[in-house]
Automatic annotation (TrEMBL):
One of its GO terms (cellular component) is endoplasmic reticulum membrane. Belongs to the nucleotide-sugar transporter family. SLC35B subfamily. One of its GO terms (molecular function) is 3'-phosphoadenosine 5'-phosphosulfate transmembrane transporter activity. The keyword Cytoplasm does not apply. This is Adenosine 3'-phospho 5'-phosphosulfate transporter 1. The keyword Flavoprotein does not apply. It comes from the Eukaryota. Residues 1-26 form the signal peptide. InterPro entries: SCL35B1-4/HUT1 (IPR013657). Keywords: Membrane, Signal, Transmembrane, Transmembrane helix, Transport. It comes from Acanthaster planci.
Amino acid sequence: MAVHCGSAVMLVIVLVAAVWIHASHAALKNPAPIGPVGPAAGADAKAAQADWTDFWLVRLTLNILGYGSVCLPAWLIIRYVKRSGYLERGGENGHSCMFKTIRVCVAGNEEKASIEEGGIKGKVPEPPKHNRALVLVSCVVGLQGSYLTWGVLQERIMKHEYGKDESNPGEKFANSQFLVFMNRILAFTAAGLIILATRQPRHTAPLYRYSYCSLSNVMSSWCQYEALKFVSFPTQVLAKASKIIPVMLMGKVVSGKSFEYFEYVTAAMISAGVTMFLLSQGKEATGPTTETTFSGVIILIGYMMFDSFTSNWQAELYKQYNMSSMQMMFGVNLFSCVFTSWSLVSQGGFTYGMGFMLNYPTFMFHVLLLSLCSATGQLFIFYTISQFGAVVFVIIMTTRSGLAIFLSCLIYGHPVTVVGVLGVLIVFAALFLRVFLQQRKKAQKAREAKQTELSNGNKV
């Protein structure tokens, strides 16, 4: 990864330049409307009500039914295999392809992978010290470029019309699940190629255990795209920043974690900042906009809950099985592709998405770039954490969130009040304060451990 880091960064820079030029041109040519104004907005509202499936709760229900049609049969099969003792009675069939497949899916490999075999720690060689600064800069450019571009494309796809001109009102893309599938299939392919090309630890986790966080990951991504139909991109970014709160709550439920007082204080600061920003937006909203904003907030709450479960479940898998980050990426995206593809087939989503691509080549270009940025961003996430730790990664991504809000307001013309700016500053001040206090706590624990070790040595 270190060898090809420069090439990847150059690719990201080229993609960023292309998207910025296109997005800026589109924003100047078709500026985003603020609130429903005039007869065109009324026509759009009437068209939105033409199909009962346009209501987000109906789409969510259909998606859940599609995922359930996969999960329920799989759950029954896994339950039968475990209760019937099929794996224990393998006998002569223990070397057959079907038996091995079922064992990997249901029970995994019995032998645990050790860190020496290439577990989480030490799975990526550390670059020479004189290259670490260059590698860090490459990671910053890769993460910022990938996810800032991804954010601009996400807003462009979900909130603006394709084919709009003086004689044509244009058409908005409506199927969020299709975008989730496109992102996941490319990430799945990238992870698979890297696993084939590099040395990986022995995989021991039952494959079905990835399905839990995969399903929650798909749901959180769907909520993320769907929310942009109802709230502004800056609002979505701030809501994502405040997901620390549900992550803490889910950590207590899933892992029984305990938290320090400063973590609760910074969580409260984040809540206050997000509330100030949302209220500043709400004062400018009237009529139907207020109602749709309420729907967007509900969807964002769903996003935060699903995303917090995903991170906590993945942490538990890492702790139990010591798989590599690429194996995690491959397993999660494998089930994500299965869930979304089956649901899209049952709802006709592939026909709609492919038809939209053929009708609007610009949309096809945007979706391909969106998927490429998502997959590239995931690779940079894993590499940055492995080389520089979670703290450096959090600082980079927190800075990215602030830049994303600024660029969205600059390109798409979102209004921001003084109260809203103050709320944004409070949120990011709380995030940086949280990182600083966590680092100081770790350093203090390290000093205490060293002092204890020295005192025990003196006693001996």
